[in-house]
Design a protein that fits this description.
single chain; alpha+beta; Jelly Rolls; globular
């Protein structure tokens, strides 16, 4: 998939300033975007704030994500190795799983078996907060590789830079993220 197709499919890379809620203080998203709530494990990955929890005793990766209002997720993709689960904690999200659209609210769980094409987006006007598990362990390296430390200035904008997007398109198969072309 080329950069134009990636941007068209996801909306990522059109400029963070055009996405509602990205300016601190303009919406409820400011609670999640505030530097007061950032910790050393927070990363901005393609417009989503991701907190990784690496010290798990099981064979899984655990993350909590926050997606600002009306922000798309990654392009449709699948994993050959990883099963994935999302639990929606706050907000309204839409998941496309095997061509079926699932609209969710807080408390909803979406189970995505390996080799299932999927994506997600925040379809509401408030931030979404979600819990995410990849099993077996290993996918967190994708977040670490392409994420920008939330403590950096302009981390959110840097996370949707065209160079980052180009790297994701080129290298995503190395992380078992097979983007559907």
């Amino acid at each position: 998939m080329d950069r134009k197709a990636f941007v068209k499919t996801t909306g990522i890379g059109i400029g963070a300033s055009l996405i509602p809620g990205f300016a601190p203080g303009k919406s409820e998203a400011s609670e999640y975007l505030s530097t007061d709530t950032i910790n050393e494990h927070d990363l901005w990955v393609l417009g989503h704030k991701i907190t990784l929890y690496k010290e798990t005793s099981g064979n899984f990766d655990l993350a909590i994500g926050v997606t600002p209002p009306n922000v798309p997720g990654p392009p449709p993709h699948h994993h050959e190795t990883y099963d994935e689960i999302f639990l929606v904690l706050e907000g309204e999200m839409a998941f496309t799983v095997a061509e079926k659209v699932i609209k969710t609210h807080p408390g909803a769980m979406v189970d995505i078996p390996k080799n299932t094409i999927h994506t997600f987006s925040n379809i509401g006007n408030k931030p979404c907060k979600w819990f995410n598990v990849h099993s077996p362990k290993g996918f967190s390296t994708f977040f670490e590789t392409f994420g920008i430390k939330a403590t950096e200035s302009d981390a959110l904008q840097k996370s949707v830079d065209e160079n980052i997007i180009a790297q994701v398109i080129q290298k995503s198969p190395e992380f078992d993220m097979i983007i559907v072309k």
